[in-house]
Design a protein that fits this description.
heterodimer; A: alpha/beta; 5-stranded parallel beta sheet; two-stranded antiparallel ribbon; 15 helices; elongated; B: alpha/beta; 13 strands; 43% helix
């Protein structure tokens, strides 16, 4: 009996020692990889884009007179005008004063990260709405707050007849933050019934700070962190979702603020732009419903392109976004492709016509066989 | 003094225990995440429709007819020998008809498209009076495609043989199993091609080996090792070529001989994938193929140059997107449009090869059609 007991204990101890050794080796390798990645981390690409210029109100804006003909690949160019806006090439052909101005605000999905100047949905709107000339006031990585502030500062002067404030889930999330990838940004707080602007003038970040913020992201590479993230309490998305959930009064005030700019002569349209995760019904549908209710409550026109996106064939829906080939990599995946921007322009124009906001060319907008 | 030393040792012991505990927790977390991933593994879809073959490893299931195999109306039909067919019985030709045999892998087989949407079937439209026979199989390497042709094609008198392959078909020549399914491997012995690992070890049911390997690859220890010994794509390809190039060249030479004996014209066809769109690691192998073709006199059609002329957004219509077809493993292959494009381009190249054209249109070489 004693021999058996000793054998059992010996076996258990051996297994334990082997298990701890293997786990320690695996853990050691993980920490080694983490240490290397942490030390070599560079500022996030999203924080140091070449076409950014620092801005004490907005955090960043487009660099005036920036031009790179191969920004996103050979022949896929980016040009920014003297006001920091991405150019809309049709403007050159359609700058007749008889055409009314239409401004597009938003984030990288409006800016057109990954496609050239002429292929952004904003640039293409005049094809369907020939009575308008479009101005692209989208900016990469903007939150709803920055889009509102920029329009107030730079959009009103264009005297637009229509202002399309394009909203994605990302913009709602960013409007609850005071920085993005280490780069400071302005944000609003609601004090009673009033919006108060915080974090301005926005301080300019140092490269070391940007690097340090990105280095901290490497913590996500640790396996114990990844395991914890599978637990609801440590899920990264939960606090963001909770913050958005509590920010609807704030968003409402921001929309009111934007609507008040030239309220008698500019029609504001809030346009929800679908992103890949909107493909299937899910928890994010509630946000779109809230946006719709909020807009309706404040008498603001609202367009949601998600139903049309979901009605697309599976392969067409895939092609709306820049995707990587199987086994390969391309930058800017998940953003609208040329086809995606074209689809947005066409579908959005049809909505604007239906809403009676903008007169278009009916022949172009008729459903194609 | 002794007490001080003992205390110091205790502290060191505690610190050591803490370090080991930390490493163990990190390592155990990694194993827990891998176990989670292993539980959700799905078997590879393509091999559900294959059966064991002692020479080739696997062939298609015979007499299959699934009307919605890859999705609504994306039919898959095979004949008694497991070859994909698109127009009923193609074992017999009408008087005056000519036959072209297409060898290859899933790109030639047409994963994700219907029977009549493969480039092999579209090729018939390019040359009136030509019937095609699809002797390709999902997952095949150059070795298996060659062995199948050598063994079974003699039963189907033909005038042209399109031997098609993608870059990965060379890599498969270095393997004795693919996705966990055993296959033959060819070696050169005294200048002769000899098949090893035959009879291929029998298999039944599905294998999850590759998926399991992929999960094990997420081990941090594996990642650390890979980083230390990591090699570029070019180096990996060079390593494979060092092992298989001479065998591949011998295979092509033997195919030429077999085709001549069978009064057929051989054409090697390099099919580009999306990964070939940009210049990169795969170009050196393609150059080598071109040199081989020139020196051996065996015609080669390389569609990569044609692919690189396609505009990027049009290009994506040619390859099945991630969600385009509800069958796992189809993405990355040609769409019907891609197949049509491939057939047109192959035909265009073939029209510059008088002996092949003569064989296809049934005239003597040099005679005008």
């Amino acid at each position: 009996m004693n021999t058996l007991k000793r054998l059992l204990i010996g076996t258990v101890l051996t297994v334990l020692i082997v298990a701890v050794t293997l786990a320690s080796l695996e853990g050691g390798a993980s920490l080694l990889l983490f240490e290397r990645d942490y030390r070599s981390a560079e500022p996030a690409a999203a924080a140091v884009r070449d076409h950014y210029a620092p801005d004490t109100l907005l955090g960043w804006t487009g660099k005036a007179a920036y031009a790179n003909a191969d920004e996103y690949g050979k022949g896929v160019g980016l040009t920014i005008d003297s006001s920091g806006r991405r150019i809309t090439p049709q403007l050159a052909d359609s700058s007749s004063p008889a055409r009314r101005a239409l401004v597009c605000s938003g984030d990288s999905y409006t800016f057109g990260l990954g496609v050239d100047d002429a292929h952004t949905w904003c640039s293409q709107l005049p094809q369907y709405l020939p009575n308008y000339r479009a101005f692209n006031m989208g900016q990469t990585d903007y939150g709803l707050d920055q889009s509102a502030l920029w329009f107030q500062r730079g959009g009103a002067g264009l005297a637009p007849a229509v202002h399309i404030l394009a909203v994605t889930d990302g913009e709602l999330e960013r409007a609850t933050a005071e920085s993005l990838n280490g780069r400071g940004k302005p944000y609003f707080e609601l004090k009673g019934d009033k919006l108060e602007l915080r974090n301005t003038p926005v301080a300019m970040p140092s490269t070391s700070k940007l690097r340090s913020v990105n280095a901290k992201r490497e913590l996500e590479g640790l396996r114990v962190v990844q395991l914890l993230r599978t637990r609801g309490r440590f899920d990264r998305d939960r606090p963001i979702a909770a913050k958005i959930e509590s920010s609807w009064p704030l968003y409402e005030k921001i929309f009111e603020r934007v609507a008040a700019v030239r309220k008698d002569s500019t029609t504001l349209v809030i346009a929800y732009l679908p992103i890949p995760r909107d493909r299937r019904p899910g928890e994010f549908d509630k946000r779109r419903e809230k946006l719709s209710a909020l807009s309706s409550k404040n008498g603001i026109k609202f367009v949601d392109l998600t139903p049309e996106y979901r009605a697309l064939r599976a392969d067409s829906a895939d092609l709306v976004f820049i995707t990587a080939p199987v086994g390969g990599f391309v930058p800017n995946t998940g953003l609208y492709s040329n086809l995606g921007h074209q689809w947005i322009a066409r579908t959005l124009s049809a909505h604007l016509q239906t809403l009676g906001v903008a007169a278009g060319d009916n022949a172009i907008l008729k459903p194609r066989p | 003094m002794a007490a001080g030393k003992s205390r110091a040792l205790r502290i060191i012991g505690v610190l050591l225990a803490l370090v080991v505990a930390g490493l163990t927790v990190e390592g155990a977390s990694s194993f827990a995440l891998m176990a989670r991933d292993l539980r959700s593994i799905q078997p590879a879809e393509n091999f559900r429709q294959a059966q064991y073959d002692s020479l080739l490893g696997w062939v298609g299931l015979p007499n299959l007819h699934n009307a919605n195999n890859y999705g609504p109306n994306l039919v898959l039909t095979t004949n008694a020998e497991g070859m994909r067919i698109h127009s009923g019985d193609n074992a017999t030709l009408a008087p005056g008809e000519r036959r072209v045999i297409c060898s290859g892998d899933s790109f030639t087989f047409g994963s994700g498209v219907a029977d009549n949407e493969t480039f092999c079937s579209y090729f018939e439209k390019q040359f009136p009076g030509v019937r095609s026979l699809n002797m390709s199989q999902r997952g095949y390497g150059i070795d298996q495609a060659y062995l199948w042709y050598r063994r079974d094609a003699v039963r189907y008198p033909h005038q042209v043989h399109l031997f098609a392959f993608i870059w990965n078909d060379f890599e498969r020549m270095a393997l004795t199993e693919f996705f966990g399914y055993a296959k033959p491997i060819l070696k050169l012995e005294s200048g002769k091609i000899v098949a090893h690992n035959v009879p291929v070890p029998a298999w039944t049911g599905s294998s999850q080996d590759v998926q399991v390997q992929s999960v094990l690859g997420r081990s941090r220890l594996m990642q650390l090792v890979q980083r230390r010994v990591g090699v570029s794509d070019s180096a990996k390809m060079a390593r494979v070529d060092a092992q298989v190039w001479d065998v591949a060249a011998a295979v092509f030479t033997d195919l030429q001989k077999l085709n001549q004996e069978r009064h057929s014209q051989l054409v090697l066809v390099y099919l580009p994938t999306m990964l070939d769109y940009e210049k990169g690691a795969y170009d050196s192998r393609r150059e080598r193929l071109a040199n081989f073709s020139q020196q051996s006199g065996i015609p080669l059609v390389d569609l990569t140059t044609d692919l690189r002329k396609v505009a990027p957004d049009s290009l994506r219509w040619m390859f099945i997107t991630a969600n385009g077809v509800p069958v796992n493993g189809s993405s990355g292959h040609f769409t019907a449009r891609g197949h049509e494009w491939a057939a047109e381009r192959i035909a265009e190249h073939v029209r510059t090869m008088p002996p092949v054209v003569s064989a296809l249109i049934g005239t003597a070489p040099g005679a005008k059609p």
